[in-house]
Amino acid sequence: MAAERLVVIGGDAAGMSAASQARRLKGPGALEIVAFERGHFTSYSACGIPYWVGGDVEARDDLIARTPEEHRERDIDLRMRTEVTELDVAGQRVKALDRESGKTYWTGFDKLVIATGARPVRPALPGMDAAGVHGVQTLDDGQALLDSLDALRSEGPRRAVVVGAGYIGVEMAEAMLKRGFEVTVLNRGEQPMATLDADMGRLVHEALDGLGITTVNGAAVTKILTGPDGRVTEVATDAGTYPADVVVLGIGVEPETGLARAAGLPVGPHGGLLTDLAMRVVGHDNIWAGGDCVEVLDLVAGRTRHVALGTHANKHGQVIGSNIGGGYGTFPGVVGTAVSKVCDLEIARTGLREKDARAVGLRYVTATIESTQRAGYYPGAKPMTVKMIAELRTGRLLGVQIVGREGSAKRVDVAAVALTAGMTVEQMTALDLGYAPPFSPVWDPVLVAARKTVAAVRGAGS
């Protein structure tokens, strides 16, 4: 009897984690694994690209966890530079295009994993395809950006315009600043970091200004202007025009689900594939999906959302590979935790923003406190702001946002655990957190915020 064949579409975190876990549980004689990757690299950290571009990470290969050769040594038939262009669900086969030779062919499957990732949002505006305009989703994208920077003249002004002020945008703004560019961030929203409430985003704006990064809010890009050589020269917005030698798109990403949509597989309101707790595509017993191409359950809001993070993608792959390999695993959902930094400014959030709470019909109170990340008398103590959101009647924690200096961002993990456990802010005030002056004031800022939020809940109730 021939071994079952597993086909994996996508050679990064979710896809290759699934393939590797399935191989660990099932030997070569029991399961044949064929994986397709359209790019040049596998199993790499896309989250590390801004730090490679900015020079904090010295070499591209430092971001690669496992090479194609290493996967093949584990008896995975990994086919690089090969793009799956069609999915025949009924016939249980995929059509692949070898990008080097131009050859196309069909490959059958017994089980299928879709891990096609996400693509940078690239508005359909004039000039968006001009030379010098770059997205930064893959290692290929990062290499193209570095090649473009190397081609710029070394003398005279070096001006970078970053379009978008979310996580990708602010991280790329830092990277371009470190490379000696004058940096302008164009943000169509009220404040940078729309993943935060506007009052916390204002703190990020002030910090960007302090670093010498110009942030323009309420600026929607209308077109990219180019010179005679076809290279970008300016970015036009409804708020003005800004000179640019290079443009980096940090508008965000959207699920890469065109292949799945064409095959009739179910997608959610945010464009991601819908799966059950085992990461199996809804309605299809032999198809799984994971990573940036799926929607996941928000445990706080009770709705699906699209969250493109490598942490989730690797967990999805482990769950999928376990289930395919004869084991058992589930992915229950997320609370929406994310951290980032711009130079020495740290930014973190978990759970719901105010508008998220309103959107799902929750009434809430908020509290914001200012503290320091260490004891105030200890050398290196720096400001830290914590905003907490709790349900009006019950006091259940709904969300936390943190903006501060070194040692601030990872405090959000305490809140993420509290959210996952369904804790109230009053319960949080009794948490036994670690204390020593180099690490925290005697009352940790998260606990100070919880105490103030408890008072807000009680005040609203009375």
UniProtKB/TrEMBL annotation:
Q: Which InterPro entries match?
A: FAD-bd_OxRdtase, FAD/NAD-bd_sf, FAD/NAD-binding_dom, FAD/NAD-linked_Rdtase_dimer_sf, Pyr_nucl-diS_OxRdtase_dimer
Q: Could you tell me the keywords of this UniProt record?
A: FAD, Flavoprotein, Oxidoreductase, Redox-active center
**Organism listed in the record:** Streptomyces globisporus
Gene3D superfamilies for the chain: FAD/NAD(P)-binding domain (3.50.50.60)
Q: Which Pfam families match?
A: Pyr_redox_2, Pyr_redox_dim
Q: Where is the Pyridine nucleotide-disulphide oxidoreductase dimerisation domain?
A: 340-442
Q: What is this protein called?
A: Pyridine nucleotide-disulphide oxidoreductase dimerisation region
Its taxonomic placement starts with:
Bacteria, Bacillati, Actinomycetota, Actinomycetes, Kitasatosporales
UniProt cofactor(s)? FAD
